[in-house]
């Protein structure tokens, strides 16, 4: 690596575009390229899922009937909250649905919380392990660790919710009842209305899936961009001898947005969990 590589300083646009680039299996050749896998999204999603399952299993193993620890008390409060919500929304057997909602909430909280890590920390750690993306220089490290700021990741989760909606719709109503509702609701069973009913139900299912994934993606993507802009303030302050005020603004803005973003991290996980329960609850009911 040459000395020029060490002194490389991207401008603001290059910095943000670089941080929005994924660690991929190959270079994307078109806007829609299904042969490309965002390795960072898959890796951090599975890492957070594994951590979620480990935390919940650890809480279950350490649960006692005596005075609970702070960890056990926190998990019990969370479990009771999810159970109360699932009980009020889903009318039926919740043996799988309530644990699913709990897992979804904790999983998304952990994924969203990656956004609270300094934006350059994880790419620099990746560089220490010898990963240099598609280039040869340290500034070519491509690593975007926030899975919920990748539309592929959030739509993948919403697709899972759609599959569960279809599964419970068929399980509760039967194949015949599900198909009958698909073609006969909401306008009636007249054969002339079947195409309109089917099209409307199809749009409803797709709209639920897309809006569920887009909502989480949009909020986390916007929060990620703000962290990049705040990081740029610190970078300009470091390069400018008269940037004391900019450095001060960087600390104030970073702290304020960090505290506010904690609320967004929790709120977006709660909304995704609640909509998952609502959509599955709707699948239990008929029109």
How is this structure best described in words?
- The chain is mainly alpha-helical and 287 residues long.
- It has one domain (10-283).
- It has nine helices and no strands.
- Helix 3 (39-62) packs across helix 5 and helix 8 (194-239) runs antiparallel to helix 9 (244-283).
- The protein is globular and about 75 Å long.
- The model is unreliable at 1-7 and 134-139 (pLDDT under 50).
Annotation keywords:
single chain, 287 residues, mainly alpha, globular, disordered N terminus
Task: Report a brief summary of the structure.
The protein has helices spanning 3-6, 12-19, 39-62, 70-89, 97-113, 121-128, 151-184, 194-239, 244-283.
Question: What best-fitting shape do the alpha-carbon axes yield?
Answer: globular
**Strand pairing plus helix content: what structural class?**
mainly alpha
Task: Round the Cα radius of gyration to an integer and report it.
Answer: 23 Å
Percent of residues in helices? over 70%
Number of domains: 1
**Low-pLDDT regions:** 1-7, 134-139
Query: What is the H/E order?
Result: HHHHHHHHH
The major sheet is characterized as: none
| Beta-strand content | under 5%
* Total number of beta strands: 0
Give the overall pLDDT as a whole number.
85
Helix segment tally: 9
End-to-end Cα distance, whole Å, is 66 Å
């Amino acid at each position: 690596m040459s000395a020029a590589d060490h002194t490389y300083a991207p401008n603001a646009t290059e910095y943000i575009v670089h941080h929005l680039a994924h660690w991929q299996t190959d270079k994307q050749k078109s806007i829609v390229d299904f042969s490309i896998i965002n390795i960072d999204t898959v890796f951090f999603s599975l890492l957070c899922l594994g951590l979620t399952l480990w935390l919940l299993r650890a809480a279950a193993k350490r649960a006692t009937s005596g005075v609970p620890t702070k960890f056990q008390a926190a998990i019990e409060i969370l479990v009771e909250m999810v159970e109360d919500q699932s009980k009020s929304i889903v009318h039926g057997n919740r043996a799988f649905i309530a644990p699913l909602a709990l897992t979804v909430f904790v999983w998304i909280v952990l994924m969203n919380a990656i956004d609270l890590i300094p934006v350059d920390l994880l790419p620099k750690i990746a560089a220490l392990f010898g990963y240099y993306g598609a280039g040869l220089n340290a500034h070519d490290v491509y690593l975007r660790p926030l899975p919920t700021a990748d539309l592929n990741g959030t739509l993948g989760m919403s697709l899972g919710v759609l599959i569960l909606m279809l599964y419970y719709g068929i399980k509760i109503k039967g194949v015949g009842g599900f198909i009958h509702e698909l073609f006969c609701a909401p306008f009636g069973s007249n054969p002339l209305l079947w195409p309109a009913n089917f099209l409307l139900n199809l749009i409803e299912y797709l709209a639920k899936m897309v809006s569920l994934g887009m909502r989480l993606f949009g909020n986390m993507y916007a929060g990620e961009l703000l962290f990049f802009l705040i990081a740029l303030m610190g970078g300009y302050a470091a390069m400018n001898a008269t940037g004391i005020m900019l450095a001060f603004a960087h600390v104030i803005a970073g702290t304020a947005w960090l505290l506010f973003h904690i609320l967004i991290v929790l709120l977006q996980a709660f909304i995704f969990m609640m909509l998952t329960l609502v959509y599955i609850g709707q699948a239990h009911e008929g029109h």
